[in-house]
Amino acid sequence: MNWLPRPAEGNAWVAPSLLSADFADLGPDIADMTAAGADLLHLDIMDGHFVPNLTFGPLICGAIRRLTDLPLDAHLMISRPDQYLAPFAKAGIDALTIHVEAESPVSETLAQIVELDMKLGISLNPGTDLEEILPYLGQLDLVLVMSVQPGFGGQKFNPVAVEKIAELARRRETEGHRFLISVDGGINGIDTGPACRQAGADILVSGSWLLGADDRPGRVDQLRGDS
Q: Model confidence over 153-182: pLDDT tens digits?
């Protein structure tokens, strides 16, 4: 299974959000982001119910898997993730990130993901208190902090994400957890990304700021902290 260790101190892994890629021709964008130095790919799965948008499902994930060897994290913004776990495993997904706000029982869903041999991730929305995910921290491989409300484009980065990242990093060190900390929503290499890195984020998810750039390698370096 493809997965990542903690990045070097002061750096972060870079995860392009393929929702900003050209879905009429995904191959060149995936190849280009790989050549630019991306570390993993972030796949936004939306069901039109948990969030007011529809994207794609396991079929497209399987097609993406055939185009890359990079780790794939599927961010399930769906009401009942427990009903779709096996198809995502079959598609070749490495990590499944479910929302603590979803309708599926969290503990049971995490146990099913373990049985399917995928990495465990939990995400929480900006308005959700960190207390909601604390009981699961010891099981997790990934915590995804949303810095915007999922399902809506063009939102401003919510600085509450930085506070949550810092608290997660503190708990990880004091309690001996292994999870990586990821952040998604309004992330760039100018101000929001560096602030999240400084707070302890290990993975920066970036969509249009990264995929819409002419100099993608330069922006990957900015996000990672290499420039």
A: 667 899 999 999 999 999 999 999 999 999
Q: Is the pTM of this model over 0.85?
A: yes
Domain boundaries along the sequence of the chain: 13-224
The distance of Cα 156 from the centroid of its chain, to the nearest Å, equals: 18
Strands 119-124 and 95-99: parallel
Alpha-carbon distance of 132 to 166, in angstroms, equals 16
By DSSP bridging, strand 180-184 and strand 142-146 are parallel
User: Using CA atoms in the order 92, 68, 45, 24, what is the torsion angle rounded to 10 degrees?
Assistant: -130
Residues 150, 127 contacting (CB under 8 angstroms): no
Nearest to 208 by CA among 182, 193, 186: 186
The two tokens of residue 194 are 């560096």
Region label for 176, one of left (φ > 0), alpha (ψ between -120 and 50) or beta (otherwise)? left
Q: Could you tell me which CATH number the domain at 13-224 has?
A: 3.20.20.70
Active site residues: 44, 184
Q: What is the pLDDT of residues 71-90, one digit of tens each?
A: 999 999 999 999 999 999 99
Closest Cα to residue 13, out of 206, 212, 211?
A: 206
Residue appearing with tokens 């929702």: 19
Q: Which residues contact 68 (CB under 8 A, 6 or more apart)?
A: 30, 31, 34, 41
